[in-house]
Amino acid sequence: MLSYDDLTQKQKDFFLKYIWNGVGSREYVKPPQLIFQQASIYHDFGYFRGGPESLRKQVDREFFHKAHSAVRRQPVAQRPFYYAMSYVYFYGLKKLGSKAWELYPEPAKTWEEFLDRVYTYFDRNPKQPGRPPKWVA
């Protein structure tokens, strides 16, 4: 299974510039990024990588754990607010995530397979703005 950490810097740059949409989505809701950007990078990558429904739940849980890790690095006085927001975001994922999940029998194993899923997603969802350009290696 392909991981975000397996990507080259050029692939990561492409993902961040053209595919990653941060916390929220381009179509449904765009809440503030707050401190959860890193968690959302891995989360978006997991959603486009796709796979069975059980993997979606795992990707959502990983977002929740990464978000809490980010909260623990904040000043003590700010943590209650950020913990509360992490639960709001996680609840949103549980409610809206299935609409964005790329359901496949297996997760993408290569960058090329990952990109095929990204382009297929944008072809199926014409309301989503900003279809990524063709990847040039």
Based on CA inertia axes, which overall geometry fits? globular
**Total helical elements:** 5
Count of distinct strands: 0
Structural class: mainly alpha
Largest sheet: none
The mean pLDDT is 89
| Helicity level | 55-70%
Distance between the termini: 21 Å
- Sheet-strand content, in percent, reads under 5%
The ordered H/E elements are: HHHHH
Radius of gyration: 15 Å
Low-confidence stretches: none
Describe the protein.
This protein has 5 helices and no strands. The chain starts with 8 loop residues before the first helix and ends in a 13-residue tail after the last helix. The model has no long low-confidence stretch (mean pLDDT 89). By secondary structure, it is mainly α. The chain has a domain of 94 residues.
Brief synopsis:
This protein has helices at 9-19, 37-49, 53-72, 79-100, 111-124. With 137 residues, the chain is mainly α. The protein has a domain at 31-124.
List the helices and strands and how they pair.
Elements lengths: L8 H11 L17 H13 L3 H20 L6 H22 L10 H14 L13
Helix pairs in contact: 2-3, 3-4
